[in-house]
Amino acid sequence: MERVLFVGTYTGGEHSDSSPTGSKGIYAFRISGSGEQLSPLGVYGKGEIDPGFLAIRDGILYAENERKDFGTIRSFAIEPDGGLRFVSSVRTNGAKCAHICVDRFGPYVFGAVYASGNVMVAKSDTRGCLALTDVVQHYGRSIVPIRQDAPRAHSCCQTPDGDGLYVADLGIDKIMSYRIDRNLGKLVANATQPSVSVEPGDGPRHMTFHPNGKFLYLLTEIGNQIYVYSFSHETKCLTEVQRISVLPENFRGVSHAAEIICSSDGKHLYISNRGLDTITGFCVDSDTGRLELSGHYSTGGKGPRHICFGPEESTIFVANKDSNEVCVLMRDRQTGNLSEVVDRQIVPAPACVCWTEIGGNE
User: Fold this and answer.
1) Mean pLDDT computed over every residue of the chain
2) Is the dihedral of CA 148, 109, 317, 348 positive or negative?
3) What are the φ/ψ torsions at residue 312 (nearest 5 degrees)?
4) Beta strands in 170-324 (DSSP E)
5) pLDDT band at 360, cuts 50/70/90?
6) CA quadruple 78, 80, 81, 86: dihedral positive or negative?
């Protein structure tokens, strides 16, 4: 059984907010051992515009795009050799889809559409054929010029039981809370707690749940903070437990937090920082959800956006967008400490990294 890492990128160009980067789409690498080494497999998704975020479920890879005229989500079948075969595409009814989340309990795919500030739902059959089922528009603004002059839906995160969906909206400084109508593929506002506000100007970006399902961690891009919330399975309500900075106390430069991940044992949490160009590590108290800083680690490159654990979580893959490379960092699973870069692969403007197994069940 082989493991393949897929890398989403920014291609740039006419329909993008960036200049051409030289990227050809979605890059694939074979993973050796526990993830220490990568070897190029191919480039897929010809003609894709800024496939900046990827998600995988049941042998299907879903890719959003961040083109500025309109957004789409596309599906690709993962072939036995690790290649990708285009299957289907669906419009997001907005521009610059920034994030996608696959339903862990059913057929749906959720997209956060950044430029137009909406969230969409699509249904995917087992082959990956997509059909739009719902679009929900956000409204409002916050205090940071340009970044928060309108709603900016940035990511989706499904609740541990699969019944709810949280959407982090950077533009309005809120987490929007929805219940999922599984019969119709619709999102219904959580009447008990429709939204949760953060400090004005913090800019919610990405979220992750603790493996025990009791806590939600929200990363803010502008404020560079983590909000720790306890989560009620009954009401789908969040209660703030802690706020903690992801930057060193003496840091005075400009940095924007990007991705947040939690280890499967629930003991360690990591943040990528663009500008500081580090991964910040935290130790997690699984009983209270609270975080304690454990260290700041170099990513081996510049502008780290997305990060993910490698196989067995003994490595972390980093998409260093601004230095055009994917780096592999070693990780001590006991202490959570990160160490040297053991491999780096040239990829134009990498934005997202995710892997899967081929040649058997995922």
Assistant:
1) 96
2) negative
3) 60, 5
4) 174-181, 186-189, 195-197, 204-209, 215-220, 225-231, 238-245, 256-262, 268-274, 278-284, 291-298, 304-309, 315-320
5) low
6) negative
Q: Would you say 267 and 191 are in contact if contact means Cβ atoms under 8 Å apart? A: no
CB-CB neighbours of 214 under 10 Å: 18
- Do residues 62 and 53 make contact, with C-beta atoms less than 8 angstroms apart? no
Pairing of strands 60-64, 153-158: unpaired
Which stretch of 81-85, 135-139, 250-254 has the lowest confidence by average pLDDT? 250-254
**Residue 361 banded pLDDT, cuts 50, 70, 90:** very low
DSSP 281-301: EEEE-TTT--EEEEEEEE-SS
**pLDDT for 33:** 84
Residues 6+ apart with CB under 8 A from 226: 217, 218, 219, 220, 242, 243, 244, 246, 260, 269, 271, 282, 291
User: Tens digits of per-residue pLDDT, 20-41?
Assistant: 999 999 999 999 988 999 999 9
Q: What is the pLDDT of residue 18?
A: 86
> Which tens digit of pLDDT belongs to each residue from 197-209?
999 999 999 999 9
pLDDT in tens, 304-320: 999 999 999 999 999 99
- The predicted model gives 2-20 an average pLDDT of 93
Instruction: Give CA–CA dist 189/269, Å, rounded.
Output: 29
Three-class SS state of 131? strand
Residue 271 has phi, psi (to 5 degrees) of -130, 140
Q: Residue 184 and residue 181: Cα distance in Å, rounded?
A: 6
**Whole-angstrom distance, CA of residue 99 vs CA of residue 65:** 9
Distance CA 43, CA 84 (A): 9
> Residue 354 has what DSSP assignment?
E
Reduced to 3 states (helix: H, G, I; strand: E, B; else coil), residue 6 is strand
Determine contact, residues 140/130, Cβ cutoff 8 Å: no
Q: Cα–Cα distance between 19 and 328 in angstroms, integer?
A: 27
- Max avg pLDDT among 15-19, 249-253, 285-289: 285-289
